[in-house]
Each structure stands twice: as structure tokens, then as C-alpha cells.
Amino acid sequence: MVVVHRAPVVVLLAALGASSLAGCSLLASKTSLTDLFPDPALAACVAESLDVDSPEDAVSEDELDSVLTLSCRVDRTVANDPAALPAQSIVDLAGIERLTSLAGVDLSGNAVRELGPLAGHAKLGRLTLTNTRVSSLASLRDLPVLTDLGLSGNEIQDLSPLEDLTTVRFLGLADNAIRDIGPLAALHGLVELDITGNQVSDLSPLGDLQALNRLVARRNVVADVGPLADLPVLVMLDVTDNTIPDASAFTGFPVLDELWIGGNPLTDVTQLRDLPALLGVDFTGSDPSETSGLEELEASGVYVGGFA
Predict the structure, then answer these.
(1) What are the start-end ranges of the E strands in 60-176?
(2) Which of 153, 185, 188, 208 could disulfide-link 131, Cβ–Cβ 3.0 to 4.6 Å?
(3) Helix (H) or strand (E) run with residue 21 in it
(4) What SUPFAM superfamilies does the annotation carry (predicted)?
(5) Is the Cα dihedral 54, 55, 56, 60 positive or negative?
(6) What is the pLDDT, as a whole number, of residue 29?
(7) Residue 292, φ and ψ in degrees, nearest 5
(8) In whole angstroms, what is the distance from residue 201 CA to residue 8 CA?
(9) Separation between Cα atoms, residue 242 and residue 83, nearest integer Å
């Protein structure tokens, strides 16, 4: 007679069942925010977002999934000055990957350098990292629905990771160390761009951005705005404090109605009156006694401002 030994099978099934129950229990259990987010300032920010009393409080996975926006903004007077960093500044973003429903994040004014934990956030539409210490954007390549990106006041030189962010509409890159804006040519949906305070000389990568509506490019080394002349919806252009030598560069610009052009070595602005939609020009930083054509501009109905 053949004897079938069933006990081990029963034991094995029981063990598997216990393991499964343990896994379910672990998923359903609550965990302290300080265990989930090693950086105490980040843990405190998440606690505030969840409206819990303390970062030591335990939260569930469902509670973490309920966090849609995270505002951990820190105000400090001097960007990138370690002495100006408050004690509550976030340094490490580890754990933020657990907030899988995030649609908006503001980390302005913190001391964040490594953005790895933000990679792959499938629902993240708005990200603000103004006045942090970011230099590498590599971790931002895979943010499929990102539309608003604020990166002003950092240490960024290389924009190549932004080539993949084709959903971005509003982009702030002021006060970095950028020379080459070539990668921005891929952002065909870009509506507003601020590149103030960089070292940009060539605007040609922006020449095919048909949705570009507003461009702020103060304090760069731009001498030629010709590449922008055919942009069909560009209504505002600020090129204050650049090196544009001649107003003849402003030929075309079919819908441009607001122009900021002070602080350039222009001596005659008469040709600006030929811009078909121009309503106003700001000359802040220029000397009216050294600029001819102002009266003709005003006579054509264009508002002239910016002179002390």
C-alpha cells in the first residue's frame, strides 16, 4: 500500500498563508514619518501637509497617497549662502518617492542637490526648485506630465536633460550659469521662458518655438534678436542689459506689443515705430540724451517709459 505523506504540504500551505497575511499586515500598518523620511525637515513638511501633530506620528500608505501637493518653501535672503540657511532646511529628499500622487512640489530655498528621489513621479505637474543648490538635472528626465518648472537661482550649466520634458509650458532658469540653450529647441510647447542673469549669447534655439508668448532674457550677452522675429505669438520680450547695438534687429515681430530694451548700446530707436503691434517700450538703464528717435516713437502712439 502506498502511503501519502500530506503533513509537509499542509505545513507549507500554512506557512505561505502566514507569509501572505504578514505581507498584507505590513502594507496596512502605519509607520512613523521620521522612519519614512530620514531628513527631519522633510518629515516635518510632510507632517504639516498631512495635518498630523508631529513627524513622529505614524501614517498609513493610504495617507501618503492622499498627498497631492507639498510646499516646503524656505525663505532666505541670500541664495546659495550656507550662512543664510535656516535650521529647518531640507537637504535629503529620500522618501519623497513614497508620495506617489504628488502633482505639485515647491522646495524653494532649501539646500537640495540630489534630485534622484523625484525621478519618475508620474503625476508631477509643477516643480519649483528656486534658490536651492541644484546643478544636475539628470533626474528630471522622466517626468511625463510636468508643465511648470522653476529652476532659477541655482548652479545649472547643462540643460540637456530638459530635452525630454516636452510637456513643459512654463520654465524659469534665471540666475544660473547657462551659456547654451540649445536643448530648449525641443520644447515646442513652451509658452513662457525666463533666462535672466545667465551667459547666453545665441537665441537661435528658440526660433522655432511657435507657442512662445513671453521671453525674459535680461542680463545676458545677446547681440542679435533676429532669430525671434517670426515667432507668431511672442507678445512680450525683455532683453534689458544685453549688447544689442542696433534697433534694426527688431524687424518682423508681428504681434510684439511690450518691449524692454534698456541698458543696451542703442543710439537710435526710430525703427521700433515700424513694429506693427508695439504698444510700449521700457528703456530702464538707458540715457535719453544718448538715444535718438524717442519723440518719433511717442508720436507713433507707442508708450515710452523707464527713464528716471
Answers:
(1) 69-71, 104-106, 126-128, 148-150, 170-172
(2) 153
(3) helix 7-28
(4) L domain-like (SSF52058)
(5) positive
(6) 81
(7) -95, 160
(8) 76
(9) 32
